[in-house]
Amino acid sequence: MKTEAVENKTENLRLKKIIVYFILLALVFSSAMMVVFQVFEYRHDYRQLSGFMRDRDDLNAEWGRLLIEQQTFGATAQIGTRAVTQLRMYSPPAAQTVVISLPATTQDKK
After folding, report:
1. With bands split at pLDDT 50, 70 and 90, how would you rate the model's confidence at 108?
2. CB-based contacts of 16: which residues, under 8 Å, 6+ apart?
3. I want to staple 92 with a disulfide (CB 3.0 to 4.6 A). Which of 3, 26, 84, 96 is the partner?
4. CA distance 8 to 1
């Protein structure tokens, strides 16, 4: 009777160890799968971030070009305004305009 009880206890202990090992194995496997999934998500997010950063750099370059263009157009108007206000320049009326034409050369006659 004692041997049966001891064998039964050892059998139960062995069964518990097997169950614990399978549970630990399942936990290790699920942990490994989660690591793989997290690495995949990280790479996906990093790729997306790189794309957004490239777009940001392209937009910054375009913004710089637009600022230069705006300054160029602004400078032309500013030069005209300063010529009128500071130098008192104006476009002459037609009565004060003289057109000078050059004499025709021999090449122009052909």
Report:
1. low
2. none
3. 96
4. 10
Q: Give the global pTM.
A: 0.51
* Residue 29 identity (one-letter amino acid): F
User: pLDDT band for position 39 (50/70/90)?
Assistant: very high
Residue 110 has pLDDT above 70, yes or no: no
Alpha-carbon separation of residue 108 from 8, 71, 99, 104 (angstroms)? 124, 42, 19, 6
Q: How far is CA 15 from CA 1, 3, 93, 101, in A?
A: 21, 18, 112, 115
Residue type, 88: R
pLDDT score for 76? 79
Residues found in the chain: 110
CA atoms within 13 A on the CB side of 72: 6
Alpha-carbon Rg for the chain in angstroms:
44
